[in-house]
Amino acid sequence: MEISDLITPESIFKKLPVTSKKQALQELAKRAAEISPINERVIFDALVERERLGTTGVGNGIAIPHGKLAGLERLYGLFARLEKPIEFDSIDEQPVDLIFLLLAPECAGADHLKALARVSRLLRDRTTCEKLRGSDDPAALYALLIETPADAAA
Fold it and tell me: Which of 2, 22, 30, 119 has the most crowded CB, counting CB atoms within 10 A?
């Protein structure tokens, strides 16, 4: 599972102007509905339901909201760098400024977990995150995300 299997240049958003976790999830659901066959409200509801189980704010300014949805035939990813960090109930209680949204088909058990693991490994790399925070070019952000260092391959 490669990051390039999940995202396209059109699913990268720089300086997303949101001020809360709820607004971030709404905006991501709206943008995900534009690239997937699923309605914005259905996506938002799935993300909120997942957050009720426990935060997807994984620490170090990173959140990986995700959900499984009926009607998807493949995994979809979106990456957003926020204009300003927001409170996200993260496990380290630090604000979030990098969000990787992952949507999976309802029946995608192992693939969903592999994708989550791959995204998590990528965003655990401090150098990669520094570069993501330092770029305003969506093409550069995309290139950074799909680079596959040998030690990060899934």
Answer: 119
